[in-house]
Every structure is written in C-alpha cells, then in structure tokens.
Design brief:
- The chain has helices at 2-23, 28-34, and strands spanning 40-48, 55-65, 71-76, 82-83, 86-90, 101-106, 117-127, 135-145, 151-152, 159-163, 169-177, 189-190.
- The protein is mainly β.
- The chain folds into two domains: 2-31; 38-190, Lipoxygenase-1 (Sandwich), CATH 2.60.60.
- Strands 1, 4, 5, 6, 8, 9 and 10 form a seven-stranded antiparallel β-sheet that branches.
Amino acid sequence: MLDVVALLAVMTILIAALAVPFINEPPKDVAEKRAPTEPVPFYVELRWEYGQPHDVDTWVQCVIVRPDGVKSVYTVSYRQRHAGFLDLVWDDLGSPSPVNFERVVSNSNVQKMPPNTFCRINAHLYSSHGGMMPVKGDLTVILDKDAPTEELLTPEKGLPFSIVYKGEEVTLFELAWDERGQLIQGAIAMYPNVPLSCLATSICGKK
C-alpha cells in the first residue's frame, strides 16, 4: 500500500513539473520577438483631461490627388471608423471612462504615405456630460511610428488646445506630402494658427 501511495506522489510531482513550462508566460524578450512591432506611417492621438466626463471626437480627413487629377477623400470619425488607409482604432465616449483619448492610424493598406496627400485633423466636443468648461486637451502626430525614421511633428508633450462650448469644432493640424511622397515642411499648420475647416459639418460651429 505504501508503495502505491509513494508512486502516486511521485507521479503527481512529475506531472506538475512537466506542466510548468505551459503555465508560465514566455520571457518578455521571447514574446516581443514573436510579435514584432510594425512601423505606422501616420499616427494621430488626441487626449483630453484625465477623469473628466467630456466626449471629444477626433475627425481626420485625408485627400489624395491621383496622377489623372481624380481626388480620393477619406474621412474617419465615430461615424465611420474605417476609410481607405485610415482607421479610428480607439473611440472614447468620455464618461464613465477616465482615460480620455482617441487614436487614428494608417492601416496595412499603405507602407508609407501616398504621394500628393493632404490631411486635416479636427477635434469636436460632442458632449460635456455635465463637465466643467472649457475642456483642454493635446494632440500628438507622428510619422513612421516605431521605425528608425520616426518623426514627431507636434511638441513633445503634445499640441495643446481648448474647446469652450458644446458643439465647438477646432482644426488642430494640417499637413501635406508632395508628388514623391515627401512631407512638405512648409505645408504644416498647427492650432491656433490654422483656420477652421469643418469636418463635423452638421454640427460645426453650433452651440
């Protein structure tokens, strides 16, 4: 009887030892090698005050002028989260989420920004949800994110902006690429020195 008990005990220990590699997570460096980070040609992140209930929407529109003169217009927002090479990958509704950020990125349809492209980035206050006004936030724009050629186009701590009433829309950033797909430095315009061009057209400018 004792031999059977001892044998069962040994088998239990052996099974537990064999199961350890399957239970423990792989080392961080191994996990990272399995899932390499792909560079993102166009990365936009909008943030506003942490813990506030406001629902701020990000609108991004890119226009590509084809060699034959035909224009392709792609606009993403909460209304349409995927358009052409643009994806709104995170749409924050404000309250009850305390984090308050939205993110738009170029998707796998492009490996680099298309030539003859113009992009505009707007913010629109959909609802304050009873929060204090004005609501303040910041915008981050990065080209070739996670690539050796990564380029931050906004200030390191983000481009600050302020929205003072429900329904207000502000144009935060504009940029363009030439016929070779190179960024046109002189075409970059940032809030507050960029004219308002509405994208949330049905509610733009209405209190």
